[in-house]
């Protein structure tokens, strides 16, 4: 492998220089300042709420955005994933609710169901001391029960755009005409082709007399267009370079033959046994089959992807967060915004189809000052895509030195047998949705 690795690195170096500039941003770049939540202007009740959820000091995005938000200013905040954006908008909302506790006061839009539920849980936890009522409105859940929840006039609605538009068009009596607070979280994803039409519909019907907070990992053309149309003289805050990764994240790659990817994955999972790991793949089918294979080998793996029902997706996340399962095999549905505090390792089994998604994937580890590792599989078919990722980062990754091919291939026969077992337990009804329970319930 050493000659191949040398050739691989030489190919990368012969391409374009792995450099990156970010001169096109007009937002203010902010260095971290020492501060407490009290310094930001929050009242005593919210200070106690922060302490109760374990928030000891504000993050840079919170330091720079909360004081202006408390003064009623619109905010456009650029910050990498894991930077504390939820607190940056939830605390100003709760502060305003203390002064004016009206129903349907705030709408928070998120691009995924999982992120919406996570934000909803954070709002409820922070708002518990003041009796705030929040509801999550997402797809995959019965609309009638959601209509009942909306009829009870919660203070905060956390929603995905598509399902919210369904209610605006079909739920009698539901309106956003009096909503005074709008938050667009992960705005760059909200404005992709899947959600853009729904977001525009929502902006047209929501109260014009509102405060708007927009948070995004990147300033895309669509985000820039939206902030000009929907925000009034916003305070712009940027606390990280466009595609930076955490300082304590150790990033490396493995150059491997495509036919041995499953064997290398098994070797690494065994080497990091007991550590919380997320394995990213590009297809739902891959998430299912790899989870089955690893379970056949005795590893506590569970899949997470958009093909699962909403209860199963939430169940997978909860089991991973609780440690009941410590290996999560996920498509990019889990790559943005989710706060899973203690992830030790991220493995990019498949390179992301969009280079920018690499940053969001590896952002699942090394969060909030913790350390973490990421290992990216690069096969003979991935050279150019990997080169683009390094160009985006502005640096080269190190070769992961913990694998010797001879040692890895000792597992080949066991892995092939596990693949055969996994193939046998697929559902006869749907080959992409295997039946669980026929494999050892490894823990």
From TrEMBL:
Helicase ATP-binding domain sequence ranges: 66-237
The entry's keywords: ATP-binding, Helicase, Hydrolase, Nucleotide-binding, Nucleus, RNA-binding
DEAD-box RNA helicase Q domain span: 35-63
Principal localisation: nucleus
Record region (Disordered): 1-30
Entry GO MF terms: ATP binding; hydrolase activity; RNA binding; RNA helicase activity
Gene Ontology annotations for the cellular component aspect, listed alphabetically: cytosol; nucleus
Motif Q motif location, chain numbering: 35-63
Localization (cell): Nucleus
Residues covered by the Helicase C-terminal domain: 264-411
Coiled-coil region: none
Family: Belongs to the DEAD box helicase family. DDX47/RRP3 subfamily.
Protein name: RNA helicase
Lineage: Eukaryota, Rotosphaerida, Fonticulaceae, Fonticula
